[in-house]
Amino acid sequence: MGKATGFLEYKRKKAPERDPKVRIKDWNEYQLPFSENELKIQAARCMDCGTPFCHTGMELRGMPSGCPLYNLIPEWNDLVYQNRWQEALERLLKTNNFPEFTGRVCPAPCEGSCTVALSDDPVAIKSIEKAIIDKGFQEGWIKPNPPKVRTGKKVAVVGSGPAGLAAADQLNKAGHTVTVFEKDDRVGGLLTYGIPSMKLEKSTVDRRVNLLKQEGITFVTNTEIGKDISAEELKESFDAVLLCAGSQKHRDILIEGRESKGIYFAMDYLTKSIKGLLDGTEVISAEGKDVIVIGGGDTGADCVATALRQGAKSVVQFGKHEKMPDSRLERNPWPEYPNTFKLDYAYEEAAAVFGEDPREYLIQTKKFVADENGHVKELHTVQMEKTYHEDGTYTMKEIPGTEKVWPAQLVLIAIGFTGTEPKLLDAFQVEKTSRNTAKAKYGQYTTNVEGVFAAGDMRRGQSLVVWAIHEGREAAREIDRYLMEETFLP
Ligand SMILES: Cc1cc2nc3c(=O)[nH]c(=O)nc-3n(C[C@H](O)[C@H](O)[C@H](O)COP(=O)(O)OP(=O)(O)OC[C@H]3O[C@@H](n4cnc5c(N)ncnc54)[C@H](O)[C@@H]3O)c2cc1C
Ligand code: SF4
User: Fold this and answer.
1) What is the mean pLDDT of the segment spanning 195-217?
2) Fewest C-beta atoms under 10 Å: which of 52, 163, 286, 404?
3) DSSP string covering 235-253, please?
């Protein structure tokens, strides 16, 4: 292990970040690297405990606990502490195809189940992961490594998000000839057209995609399967098909005034903003506007940060639930994911600009009101009361007399997704679940159609990058088994 007494001697440090007031003037990443010396200290805090929970990858009460990729965290912490970076990188790449993505955007369920977190702040696992892979690229240790032997089997992957990319990488490593089809003009799924650049710069995605190309994977963009190429044609041309088309069907708020101009889905807003940065195309601008983001989750936070960079006059984010507690509640014990108050990058930025956190809690929008041109001008809301019951359920009710009117010229709806667009599944005649996702058993990924598999958000529903990589890897293993009758993929 690293340093036996490290967790007693050293305190956790937050990864350095650029000054919020400065970084909102550009779209570059807000995080900064730790110094190598500081990383060594942070890695020394790992206790290498007898039964580490950080890499268990379980789901407890619907939330991840431990790393879903089973990253060998105590091992690479120890190697970083010993300055054995190249070995740490090898260990990390055994379980994670794309640590440069997770090291930047993962909510780090590993840290919530770190044993040190029982009595102190957890080990800074995510920052160490990012440092290992970034050093790997800087030092030129990561080079294209195409397979030595090809099997002659052909696999089509539909969708180039993290699930599709991880599956393609694994299948290519196993020697299959892989083609990834993407309906958008760029590869990456939500890594490219969802997660904003200040969290994940697009050059980081391109760097990985170029590596995959050099290793022999073919990418076909601007091609929608089910429209530009039929499901039948794809099945006939390939030995297996993996559907990784995500889960991006918007959830809407169907209340009075919804038809007003100036109300958009968060995804349309974010995608246009990213495309605008990359190609100079038109964006939905928040400049000089009062912006209201409906939805208290991470997508909403990304909208807040984007609106700030566009020069919004004010930004407020509405959440349906109460403010999270500062520390774990009894009903949320370790090693569950800690549902505690977090000051994400977007909220720090809003506080730096406007002097306060932009979040409003337990609030419900009752109607949108438009001006004489049909453009939204205000939102009417009411405060809610949430009552928990003994069986863990809760009820919500409006508090009379708390009605309020908010000015808004731009409203962004970020209240989640209702499953996958059905067109692709229908084209393949793949059965759906009641949640509008592909029906394919976890761990097997087979659908009701011979030779057609499904993974990632398309199977699981809108989730996390780390789960998408996990499912892509596992689905690749099952496809390899299907094609070769045995598999050496993990
Ligand atoms: C705004 C936003 C921010 C997020 N931030 C984070 C974060 O910070 N951390 C985190 O862990 N997770 C985050 N997530 C969730 C995460 O991005 C997803 O869980 C993950 O990208 C899912 O990967 P996937 O490969 O299954 O699908 P996706 O990334 O959705 O990719 C699916 C791809 O399939 C393509 N496609 C669809 N239909 C077809 C077709 N018929 N033919 C060809 N191609 C098709 C789509 O164009 C898309 O490129 C965020 C999600 C959103 C919406
Ligand atoms: S991928 Fe996420 S959960 Fe796994 S070690 Fe990295 S930050 Fe932790």
Assistant:
1) 98
2) 404
3) HHH-SEEEE-----PBP--
Q: Which of 69, 95, 111 to mutate to test the pocket of ligand 2 (most atoms within 8 A of CB)?
A: 69
pLDDT-based confidence at 1, cuts 50/70/90? low
| pLDDT for 64 | 83
pLDDT band at residue 62 using 50, 70 and 90 as cut-offs: confident
| Number of domains into which the chain is organized | 3
Q: In percent, how much of the chain has pLDDT > 90?
A: 92
Query: Ligand 1: does its nearest atom lie under 6 Å from the Cβ of 181?
Result: yes
The verdict on 210 and 352 lying in the same domain is no
| 86 and 20 in a common domain | yes
In this prediction, residue 151 has a pLDDT band, given cuts at 50, 70 and 90, of very high
Pocket test for ligand 2, best of 129, 132, 471 (most atoms within 8 A of CB): 129
* pLDDT at res. 194: 97
**pLDDT of amino acid 51:** 87
Handedness of CA 310, 315, 317, 318 (dihedral sign): negative
| Cα–Cα distance measured from residue 191 to residue 307, given in angstroms and rounded to the nearest whole number | 19
Q: Whose CA is nearest to atom 2 of ligand 2?
A: 108
Are the beta carbons of 105 and 199 closer than 8 angstroms? yes
Average pLDDT over residues 41-53: 91
Q: Is the pLDDT of residue 436 over 70?
A: yes
Same domain, 64 and 194: no
Whether 295 has a pLDDT exceeding 70, the answer reads yes
Residue 297: give its domain's CATH number: 3.50.50.60
Proximal ligand: closest to the CA of 77? 2
**H helices present in 117-265, as ranges:** 125-138, 162-173, 190-193, 202-214, 231-237
Q: What's the Cα-to-Cα distance from 149 to each of 165, 173, 213, 348, rounded to whole Å? A: 20, 9, 17, 51
Strands ordered across the beta sheet of 177-181: 218-220, 177-181, 154-158, 240-243, 452-454
Confidence class for position 59, pLDDT limits 50, 70, 90: confident
CA-closest residue to ligand 2 atom 3: 67
The CATH number that applies at residue 107 is: 1.10.1060.10
Q: Which of 30, 130, 190 to mutate to test the pocket of ligand 1 (most atoms within 8 A of CB)?
A: 190
Do both 186 and 289 map to the same domain? no
**CB atoms closer than 10 angstroms to residue 366:** 14
Q: Which helix (H) or strand (E) holds 21?
A: helix 20-23
pLDDT digits (tens, 9 = 90+) for 355-393: 999 999 999 999 999 999 999 999 999 999 999 888 878
Pocket of ligand 2 (CB under 6 A): 67, 69, 71, 73, 102, 106, 108-110, 125-126, 129, 466
- Please tell me the distance between residue 108's alpha carbon and the centre of ligand 2 in angstroms: 5
Q: What are phi and psi of 211, to 5 degrees?
A: -65, -45
The boundaries of the domain holding residue 20 are 6-138
Same domain, 441 and 304: no
